[in-house]
Amino acid sequence: MTTFGPLLDVRPLLPRERRALLDLLGSLDPPDWRRATACPGWTVHDVVAHVVNDYVRRLAISRDGHESPEFDDGETLPEYIARINEEFVRAARQCSPRVLVDLLAHLGPELDALWATRDLDAPADLDVSWAATDRPSPAWLDLAREYTEFWVHQQQVRDAVSRPGADEPELFGPVIDAFLRALPSALRVENRPEGTVVRFDVRGEAGGTWHAVREGGRWLVDPGEPPDEPAARVAMDQDTLWRLATRGVSVENARRRSEMHGDRTLTDAATTLLAIVR
């Protein structure tokens, strides 16, 4: 086992997720673009603009080597990210929905071409802080994080306009898989004997079983059945899992929707799982 678990290659899924998003956006009426979303203060238009920002930012950094804006004095990482995201979204309110869709359709294949050249085992351009802060991230985890970002924002748009979709196991399953790579981070402050196991079951067609094991003084994660009897076990449905990981539901609500057995401290820690910068 390794810190981040086995390699997850999401590159074939990126065009499929984008196609589903573009099809959705092409079906929206003007009032739909003004609907509020789960992102506080952001409409559908704003969330789509944020996805454009994600595309632009990654091309600028990973393809062109462009330096990101500097932190303001005393600014934390969450504060920095919130500020630069808000700045782009506010500026993009000058753009029509058609312009935003055109930007996604044009820039998306540029990103696909970039990722196709990546050595997935090489160091990431941007570390995934919610997976670990004391180990460099591999490129594959960086790309998986980007995929979850795009998928989640598409779901936020779908929720806002009441049009479910893009939730078939082929597209949804890798999101859950990527989010469970945050399990060791959720457990990091819990010191347990070597070999202690925490099992996490995600119910639903896109779900499965993951486990974290205490090895070498840290928690490691792996998909599949654990090798030994778990000291703690959490079972949660797939919709609750992705919303918990992005704080679309609170930790308390997620626990009420779940089954938890064994070491209560470990189950409480596991259900603080977070896969965004916050």
From TrEMBL:
Isomerase is among the record's keywords: yes
Alphabetized Gene3D superfamilies for the sequence: dinb family like domain
Keyword Isomerase carried by entry: yes
Short name of any one Pfam family annotated for the protein: MDMPI_N
Residue ranges annotated for the Mycothiol-dependent maleylpyruvate isomerase metal-binding domain, each copy included: 15-157
Gene Ontology MF annotations: isomerase activity
InterPro entries listed in its UniProt record: DinB/YfiT-like, Maleyloyr_isom, MDMPI_metal-binding
Keywords: Isomerase
NCBIfam families: maleylpyruvate isomerase family mycothiol-dependent enzyme
Name recorded for this polypeptide: Maleylpyruvate isomerase N-terminal domain-containing protein
